Amino acid sequence: MERKRAKTDEEAVELEGLDPNLIMSMERLQEAQDELDQANEAANEKVLEIEQTYMEKRRPIYERRNEVIQKIPQFWLTAFLSHPHLRDLLTDEDCKAFKFLKSLSVEDLGDIKSGYKITFEFGPNPYFEDSKLSKVFKYVEDASTAELGNAPHWKDGMDLTKSKKPETKEKKRPRKTNSFFNWFSDPVDADLIVGLMQDEIAEIIKEDLWVNPLTYFNNENGSDSDGDDDNDDDDEDICETDEEDDDDENEDDE
After folding, report:
1. In the chain, what are the domain boundaries?
2. Contact, 94 vs 101, CB < 8 A?
3. Can you tell me the mean pLDDT for 224-228?
4. Residue 155: pLDDT above 50?
5. Where is the composition biased (Acidic residues) (predicted)?
6. CA–CA gap between residue 39 and residue 28 (Å, rounded)
7. Residue 40 pLDDT > 70
8. 118 neighbors 100 (Cβ within 8 angstroms)
């Protein structure tokens, strides 16, 4: 146990005139609190050791789960759209790109105290060249801070973070959009992530979606419990299908 800190002159003056029994009780209370702090710190270290051990045991199970998920069409897109906090982050165009999402993984950096990396793996698609998009978050003083992510290398004319409509007639510069793919950039423009900070999105993915995506794929938490028909209609319109787009184009041609 650490040696007790000597009282300063100011503290000595403040203690003058106080009941000696009260002073002794306060000192004993401080000693007890110091011991509790040390015990809690030791307990936290043990918890981290146990978590590290089971993290390694869970890894092959996650890999096996991922193999099964890849056999289910649009699994991660469905899970995203059923999640109450993530569903609003995808634009209609994002949904089309997410149909090519094969797997999502969360990996701790060395140990669980350092941080983690979230990786999205895509199959060949008409939007970007990358097969993997990732973002790293490192813990600094008990808080997570975003590190450099790898923004997509967009194919010509397919950048979902840029509007296809020019900002003004004078400036032919494309406007930014609220695309989820802005999240992979560094730094992220706060205005482009609706309602959530980038580390909040990461925590939701890490602690909720990735832990049990089947819950959301089955729409257990994404559905409205009150059975409101209007809300059900809204759910169907979250992500337009390619067939709907084709119908719109045919109507325009007519």
Report:
1. 31-71, 73-163+177-220
2. no
3. 44
4. yes
5. 223-254
6. 17
7. yes
8. no
Q: Per residue in 116-143, pLDDT tens?
A: 899 999 999 999 999 999 998 888 775 6
Burial class (CB in 10 A: 0-12, 13-18, 19+), 91: buried
Q: How confident is the model at residue 6 (pLDDT cuts 50, 70, 90)?
A: low
**Count of positions (residues) in the chain:** 254
Contact 149/141 with Cβ under 8 angstroms? no
**pTM of the prediction?**
0.69
At residue 206 the predicted structure's pLDDT band, cuts being 50, 70 and 90, is very high
Residue 144, H or E segment = strand 143-146
Residue 236's closest CA among 125, 95, 126, 103? 95
| Beta bridge partners of residue 146, listed in sequence order | 137
Class of domain 73-163+177-220: alpha beta
Residue 115 CA from chain centroid, whole number: 12
Q: Which of 219, 202, 228 is nearest to 82 (CA)?
A: 219
Copy the structure tokens of residue 27.
């000192």
Q: What residue type is 69 in one-letter code?
A: I
Residues whose CB falls within 8 Å of the CB of residue 165, separated by 6 or more in sequence, listed in order = 174, 175
Tokens of 3: 């040696």
Q: d(Cα 167, Cα 190) in Å, to the nearest integer?
A: 20
Q: How far is CA 83 from CA 34, 138, 208, in A?
A: 43, 25, 9
